[in-house]
């Protein structure tokens, strides 16, 4: 079986929030809490999924916040967001994905952390 590594991670850059009208105030507040919690750490991370699309101006109503990082970053975020932890980061595998996955909740917004996300590309 072969696995493909997902998108490379990157650091948060100032000014990424351009189209805030596409995302609720509550989501923006949660993203700000996360960003401030991680800004002084050497963690590679990126917002992915519907919240990322909404920040870019896509007319979509995100249901959660997805963060992609590496294994080390997932465990660091697990510690930094410990007060919001629903499920601690741990390794898991489904039929098509494997990652170090954790779940958090801030202001009733679900946050999923995925470290070293890999996608199954064949049955070998």
In short:
It is built from three helices and six strands, in the order E-H-E-H-E-H-E-E-E. It is an alpha+beta fold and 124 residues long.
Provide an overview of this structure.
This protein has 124 residues and is α+β, with helices and mostly antiparallel strands. The chain has a single domain, classed as Beta Polymerase, domain 2 (2-Layer Sandwich), CATH 3.30.460.40. The protein contains 3 helices and 6 strands; from the N terminus they run E-H-E-H-E-H-E-E-E. Strands 1, 2, 3, 4, 5 and 6 form a 6-stranded mixed β-sheet that branches. The longest helix has 14 residues, at 25-38. The N and C termini lie close together (3 Å). Mean pLDDT is 86; it is low at 5-18.
Count of helical regions: 3
C-alpha termini separation: 3 Å
Strand portion, in percent? 35-45%
**Please, what is the average pLDDT?**
86
Spatial extent as radius of gyration? 14 Å
Number of strands: 6
Helix-and-strand structural type = alpha+beta
Q: Low-confidence parts lasting 5 or more residues at pLDDT below 50?
A: 5-18
| Tally of discrete structural domains | 1
């Amino acid at each position: 079986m072969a696995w493909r590594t997902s998108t490379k991670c990157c650091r948060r850059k100032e000014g990424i929030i351009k189209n805030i009208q596409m995302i609720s105030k509550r989501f923006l507040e949660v993203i700000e809490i996360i960003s401030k919690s991680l800004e002084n750490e050497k963690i590679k991370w990126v917002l992915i999924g519907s919240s990322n699309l909404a920040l870019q101006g896509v007319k979509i109503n995100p249901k959660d916040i997805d963060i992609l990082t590496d294994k080390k970053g997932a465990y660091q975020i697990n510690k930094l967001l410990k007060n919001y932890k629903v499920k601690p980061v741990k390794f898991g595998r489904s039929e098509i994905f494997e990652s170090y996955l954790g779940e958090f909740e801030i202001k009733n917004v679900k946050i999923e952390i995925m470290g070293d996300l890999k996608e199954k590309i064949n049955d070998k």
